[in-house]
Amino acid sequence: MSTAKVGIIVFPGSNCDADTYHVFNNIIGVDTKFIWHKSATLEDRNIVILPGGFSYGDYLRCGAIAKFSPIMSEIIRFAQKGGIVIGICNGFQVLCETGLLPGALIRNRMLKFICDLVTLKVENNKSIFTSYYEIKEEIKLPIAHGEGNYVCDSDTLSELIGNNQVLFTYTENPNGSTGNIAGLQNVSRNILGLMPHPERASESILGNTDGIRLLRCVAESVI
Amino acid sequence: MYKAKVIVTLRPSVFDPQGKAVENSLKSIGLSSVLDIRIGKYIEMEIETESYQEAEQVVIEACKKLLSNPVMDDYNFTVQEIQSERSIK
Fold it and tell me: Which residue among A37, A62, A74, A89 is the active-site one?
């Protein structure tokens, strides 16, 4: 029985928070709570999710203003102690802005907002996020972003690859991301950022369950 | 009172698709001499500090912490002294 206690951070402008809550609470069946961004504490949560959306209207740069929300200093402390943090889409942008993950996400190469189902390759399945997938397995997840073009310098890219930090790549790069990167973990392997939305691919009635294995895998990694 | 004018631009190594699109559009309306366009952000700030040096430090801190992202942006700025509303009275 998992003792996961999931905290979903809600910023002004988050819009995937309720979907993510639904999957953890009702589909996977673990203790799940919303945490308002002005909260000073993560309470007893042992998994933190930064959900998709448009925190602070994406003003200035995506995620730039959210990184100074009151809860963020607590999340940085939690993450640096090894706490599990996942940033999905806008959450990934916030994690890059705070420096918890390397690199940055800029405007898609073709400038358009892309809402599509894309094929991803699992590049590393020895992580708390991906162990329910096969190595090199191809899965389909939805993306919905205007700024999902992952950029980093060539030294960082070599490190990401050398340390097996890249967990998901696009088989057909939709947005110009460096190294076709769709999702990566930090060096300490407790923080994941990804642009695709696993929470939108978690119920067979919605036609796709490729995402549930990621979220279930994380929930069950907490014993 | 000081006024800072900050310009944040994408670093030269970062591809600027927005600039490229505008460049192509200018070419399409016949301005074929336009060679390269990069788009950035322009920010004005009014700052109340005792000295010019302090105002400059505030701008640098603002640029480093929030206005630019060192992974992808460069910034530069100017600071000039202006009349505050109080001293006008």
Answer: A89
